[in-house]
């Protein structure tokens, strides 16, 4: 058995054993086991070269826990891994680390230590309608960082407002020897279930070699869920800057959800380069936690300036959350 398959077996067994034995061993600890299987058949055209592939779109397994110490203090933890369900290559890892942390939660808010998404990454909420697919905003913008050595503080809510800070230690391999800080202020509910508006503003300082800023707004209007992001980023060492925006919209008709999204990226160093991603998709609900999805994404990468050739992707697949 090769090393990749060995790691897969070990991790799967560890998660299974944790779920099986956690409840009786840790009485009073609220433990939740969850996961998502998302796999699609995809036709990819990259620079005129086409291929058909089966893609695992950030399928995952995880466990969370909340151990009540007293009426004002709890120990919380999360351990999540990504499973490449459709990748049988011997030279690739079938398991990747996602958010994995432990911390304390109480009237003061929450303090978390470990691998975690930065506040800037968290700030967009649910505005990116094609997260984990080819049109994920990380493909044109920096800032979608999940850092390995972080201390995160999330404040209690003050009305509909709350704030968060991520400190990234200089020992993190992606930091290059300098510490980084990511901060954000949030308003409302990112899922738009408890409020009609969601908004946030976030700043990164020297996180993964970049300074970045985002303004995020989402709302419900006449049956539509609408989202907008304004983004800017700057390489700390060179001062090279990129700006862009994203607009998304979703509309539900019975069991169907129609979705569309446009994202831009413009570099202001050297010859200006504009990159644009257009995506349209539809989800069909099979049950509360299961759906069939389809999407088409086209990247206009300004070949004359960037040297990158245009790309397009057509995919359909199924997702089940548990």
What does it look like?
This protein is mainly β and 322 residues long. It has a single domain, classed as Porin. The protein contains three helices and 17 strands. The protein has a 16-stranded antiparallel beta barrel. Strand 13 (241-253) and strand 14 form a beta hairpin. The longest helix has 23 residues, at 3-25. The model is unreliable at 1-6 and 20-25 (pLDDT under 50). It holds the Pfam family Porin_4.
Keywords, please?
transport, globular, single chain, Porin, 16-stranded antiparallel β-barrel, 3 helices, mainly beta, 17 strands, cell outer membrane, 322 residues
Name of the level-1 CATH class: Mainly Beta
- Give the tally of structural domains: 1
- Neighbour order of strands in the largest sheet: 1-3-4-5-6-7-8-9-10-11-12-13-14-15-16-17
| Most strands sheet | 16 strands, antiparallel, barrel
How many β-strand stretches?
A: 17
The proportion of residues forming helix, as a percent range, comes to under 10%
What structural class should be given to the helix and strand makeup? mainly beta
Give the oligomer, counting copies of the same chain as homo and different chains as hetero: single chain
Q: Tell me the span between the first and last alpha carbons.
A: 30 Å
Low-confidence stretches: 1-6, 20-25
H/E topology pattern: HEEEEEEHEEEEEEEEEEHE
| Structural shape | globular
Subunit structure: Homotrimer.
Signal peptide: 1-27
Main location: membrane
Domain Porin: 14-302
